[in-house]
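User: For my dataset I need records formatted as: sequence, then structure tokens, nothing else. Please produce one.
Assistant:
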Amino acid sequence: MTTGGAGHKPRRWIAGAAAVVIVLVIGTCLLVSGVLSADEPAATVLTTSPAAPPPPAEDWYDLTTYQAVESGDGHETVPSIGIGVGKEPFSRGIRGSAVSPAAQPANFRTWSTAGRCTRLSVWIGKDAASSPADGVGQFVIRADEKDATTRQASIADAPQHVEIDISDVDRLTLLDVRTGRDAANAWGTPRVFCSAPPGRTV
């Protein structure tokens, strides 16, 4: 009996040791699995860059609120101006009051439109508030170095609306000719249709 009982002890010890080894192996596997999981890079989150801003919307810009790149000394910006026999004044006008011959113009302004503008809109004629005179003034719109259009008007004429294509024009000039016997010239609400302002604000 003693011998038989002693013979079973090694087997119980071996079984116990095997159980411990199994537990250690399982624990090691779990530990290694946890370490590997911690070392794995986080899932990559795909992000998209913000969309580019849309191009500026085309709009009408009042020329008198933007700085001219070149000008004579005879153009004066006024809050409003009446033209010829018209009854309603035009907002943000230009008065050309200096004696300004074609050979040596003093009444002019040039803006940089840099190909960003497509249309010019303006009303022209004689300043209704200036002293009556019987002379005829000349109004010239230049696209770069070429005369795009030329009009004439006296104090007895109604306002004339001019709208012209100025696509691909880099420099836009409003020029008027006046002799000593003419009433002052008037440009009413000169504005351009552009994708960006025609220069810096005044």
